[in-house]
């Protein structure tokens, strides 16, 4: 688990500088090929999003959405999610939908089926 996280500032900067970005109204995703057999995840939430309780909640929502969907994306990338201000009062399902949308935009999705709130395939 520990090796699946991006923690150091230099690693974040490398993904920002060399990677490619995709965005929607709630999140920004930077991806960079890491030539490893696993994906590494970094989450950045600015103080503009809210106080520490709000920022931690947004981080937990993003990491849980990623955990539940990581089997449906390609392997070998460094992924950095940046939460936008609009994400501070959103539900888990809205964050998950935004995350899946970014995976689809980036071409990382393996399973192209999208499931809505009622577990119906769209």
TrEMBL record:
Q: What class of enzyme is it?
A: hydrolase
Its keywords, alphabetically, are: Endonuclease, Hydrolase, Nuclease, RNA-binding, tRNA processing
- Record-linked Pfam families: Ribonuclease_P
Q: Does the keyword field hold Hydrolase? A: yes
Record note on quaternary structure: Consists of a catalytic RNA component (M1 or rnpB) and a protein subunit.
Identify its protein family.
Answer: Belongs to the RnpA family.
What is the protein's known function? Answer: RNaseP catalyzes the removal of the 5'-leader sequence from pre-tRNA to produce the mature 5'-terminus. It can also cleave other RNA substrates such as 4.5S RNA. The protein component plays an auxiliary but essential role in vivo by binding to the 5'-leader sequence and broadening the substrate specificity of the ribozyme.
Name of the molecule in the record:
Ribonuclease P protein component
Gene, per the UniProt record: rnpA
